[in-house]
Structures are given as structure tokens and as C-alpha cells.
Amino acid sequence: MNDLALILNNVTRTYHTGSNELPVLKGVNFSVEKGQWCCIYGASGSGKTTLLNLIGALEKPDNGSITVCGQEITSLSRKQAAKYRAKKIGFVFQSFHLLPELNVLENVALAGEISGMSRSDAKKRAQDLIAQVGLTARSSHRPAELSGGEQQRAAIARSLMNSPELLLADEPTGNLDPETGEEILKLFQNLRLTNPDLTILMITHNREIAALATAVVELKHGLLV
Fold first, then answer.
1. Segments of the chain assigned E as strands
2. Predicted confidence band at 167 (pLDDT cuts at 50, 70, 90)?
3. In Å, how far are 102, 185, 186 from 182, measured between CA atoms?
4. What is the dihedral of CA 61, 78, 93, 72, to 10 degrees?
5. Which is it for strands 4-17 and 20-33: parallel, antiparallel or unpaired?
6. Residue-level pLDDT at 44
7. Is 37 helix (H, G, I), strand (E, B) or coil?
């Protein structure tokens, strides 16, 4: 178990709208080893994003348990969940979610300052990460002055700011053209070389992207197949 970054045991999630029920996850079981790049592959509506939200403690499952890096997270309070996300989880979304009034350096450093880093330490860490994703020359630019690929690189640097153990990526190339998307995927491959203890969990509907991962889990109608 010490070699597992993630364990899901009989996880279910149903959404309720009035008198209607929509079962999204119907008893999901799987585990991911530390240091792996695991892709959750499936069509739109298969439950991928819900699963990612549960692992990120943005939602709670109806039943089952989720253990991340040795910590069971389904019983966390809202405050504990926020601390868990800050300490153990990095998020990369399809939409970049950069603050428009801040430049790249400020966007990346802010994540460290929020978690308690001093401003000087956060700035230095941010500069190192921005260099790692190849954006040093653009660090003083605001998001509106960046291409989509550059914005995603900045978002990836921000996700690494607090040295997470698990990186959750939700269709990170979904808003990018194929060539730029390929560059971002190469960046994820490089991250595994420079951060061998980092576990990456990425969701995608693209079989070619899933094929790049070291492990693939297919989700269909709320079940693993």
C-alpha cells in the first residue's frame, strides 16, 4: 500500500435534481502506483470529471472510500479538505483559470503565498517552475498577452507550486490546437523525468492521449470496463 498514490474502493456518486436521480459513478474500484501517469479514458458523460472532483475533495462520494498518498479523504471537513488540496494536490484544468490582472510570475507565486510561503520564497520557487515549463521570457506578461499553450504552461507551473504528490489534469489539451496540445503532452512527459515521485492522473476522451500514459483506466457509464 505504501507504493500506491491512490486507492478507490467501491466509490459511488449520484446527483439529484428534484425527484430525478442521475447515477454517475456506480461502484468504482482502482488504484494507481506512485510515480505513474495514469489516464482515465472515456466518452463525455462517462463520469470522468466527477471522479476527478472526488479525488480532489471538491465533492464527496455517496459511498466508498478514497485514499490519497496514505490519507483517507472522504471524511474530511471543508477546512481539512482545503488543507489537503493545498498540500497534496495540483490541478490543471481545460480552461486555464489564470487571474487576468496578474502576470505569469504573480499567478504562479500566488499559489505559494496562499499556502503560507513568504513572498520572496514564493517568487523564487515560481521563477524556477516558470523556467521548467519554458516561460521565463513571458513571465512579466498577463494572460491576455499569451497564447493558449503559454497559458496552459503557466497553469502547469502554478499547479506544481506547492510540490504536490498528485497532479490532477482535466482534459488539459482540450482548448488547444493539435500541435500545441502535443507540446503540452511532451511537457507532462518531461515532468515525470524531473519529478519522479509525482503521480499524474489525467482524464481524456482521446485514445491517442491515453496511449501516452503508463496506465489507462477506461470509464463507461460510471463503471470501469
1. 4-17, 20-33, 37-41, 63-68, 71-72, 89-92, 166-170, 199-204, 215-220, 223-224
2. very high
3. 27, 5, 6
4. -50
5. antiparallel
6. 83
7. strand
Coil, strand or helix at 79: helix
Alpha-carbon gap, residue 159 to 138, rounded angstroms: 18
User: Residue 218 and residue 144: Cα distance in Å, rounded?
Assistant: 36
The phi, psi pair for 132, rounded to 5°, reads -60, -35
171: nearest Cα among 205, 138, 137: 205
What nine digits make up the cell of 215? 496506465
Q: Tell me: pLDDT of 225 over 90.
A: no
User: What is the arrangement of strands in the sheet containing 37-41, beginning at the earlier edge strand?
Assistant: 89-92, 166-170, 199-204, 37-41, 215-220, 223-224
* β-strand partners of 202: 39, 169
CA-to-CA distance for 121 and 185, rounded, in angstroms?
29
